[in-house]
Amino acid sequence: MPAPHKPAATATMTNFRLVAEAEAPRVLAGTIMFLPPRDKIPKGAWTDPELLDGAFNHPVAIVSCPQPKEIQHTSHVEIAIMTSFHGSTVKAHLASKGIHTASGTLAAERSGHLRVVTASKPHAKDVLKLRDGKGMKRDSCYVGIRRTYGVELRVLALYGFGREEVDAYRLTAHATRKLVESVRVRAKGKGMGMGKVKVKIGKGGGEGEGEGEGEGKKKGGKEKKLVGSVKVRVKRVKSVKGGGEKKGSTKKEV
After folding, report:
1. What CA–CA distances, in Å, run from 102 to 51, 246, 248?
2. Are residues 205 and 239 in the same domain?
3. Is the pTM of this model over 0.90?
4. Phi and psi angles of residue 155, each rounded to the nearest 5 degrees, phi first
5. What string of pLDDT tens digits covers the 254 residues of the chain?
6. Residue 177 parent element (H or E)
7. Reduced to 3 states, what is the DSSP secondary structure of residue 109?
8. Closest Cα to residue 162, out of 8, 54, 16?
9. Could you list the residue range(s) of the whole structural domain that residue 232 is in?
10. 2 within some domain
11. Does residue 232 share a domain with residue 192?
12. 38 in the same domain as 121
């Protein structure tokens, strides 16, 4: 008679190590970390009051944070919650609620998630990749992009049961930009409302910087929007004789 199946090990309140003060400068946008259970959060540390109990005890992705020279142990960072849907897929998760979709990609889009590469499926397509060919530990993993939250950096733990470096699990530069841009487009409200937060894209294919503001600025007829690490300038273009651009039309420069 075969031995009973044992569920895969998951990160629990006894398997994590909180980020140390000396490790703070190594935390960049795209770093995968872990939000411990609520009762294990350091006393006096700030967390977004809109974080529900279900968001704790989950991996998170850093969406934005201060620059390495500025970040401190008590700095506020912006996080997106990650989930495995209890080892299922987002398509199956929606189907269990009576919502049927043609593909996993459409299901993820409809539910406001991006799929993240896992160690068990390293060659999956249409996923956010991690540096150095790594993958998340569960068989399925998704990061929510409809809403982000703010916490003090010191409440977060290392992903990977605390046995690896603080930045051992980090999205590639391309994946980080996709996450940030998707959050800015899809997130409800202004996320954690941190105002100006410079976003530093970690090495692993390129770097970029931006001021992760939720809204653009208007000045002198020009509007400047900062989407993740990509600066987009929208300006008014005057009419040009000979049938060029119409007056009042807009032109984007990236």
Report:
1. 32, 41, 41
2. no
3. no
4. -85, -15
5. 444 433 344 444 457 899 999 999 999 999 999 999 999 999 999 999 999 999 999 999 999 999 999 999 999 999 999 998 877 777 777 676 777 776 777 777 878 899 999 999 898 888 999 999 999 998 889 999 999 999 999 999 999 876 789 999 999 999 999 999 999 997 554 444 443 344 445 444 333 333 333 333 333 333 333 333 333 333 343 443 444 444 444 443 33
6. helix 173-186
7. helix
8. 16
9. 216-254
10. no
11. no
12. yes
All residues at 6 or more sequence positions from 199 whose CB lies less than 8 Å from its CB, including other chains: 29, 63, 64, 65, 180, 208, 209, 210, 211, 212, 228, 229
- Does 208 share its domain with 223? no
Q: What is the token pair recorded at 31?
A: 């770093």
Tokens, residue 35:
């939000």
Query: Would residue 1 count as lying in a domain?
Result: no
- Within its chain, how far is the Cα of 243 from the centroid? 44
Residue 16 lies in a domain: no
Q: What is the total count of domains within the chain?
A: 2
* Cβ count near 163 (within 10 Å): 9
User: Do 160 and 202 fall within a single domain?
Assistant: yes
Q: What gap in Å lies between CA 28 and CA 30, rounded to an integer?
A: 6
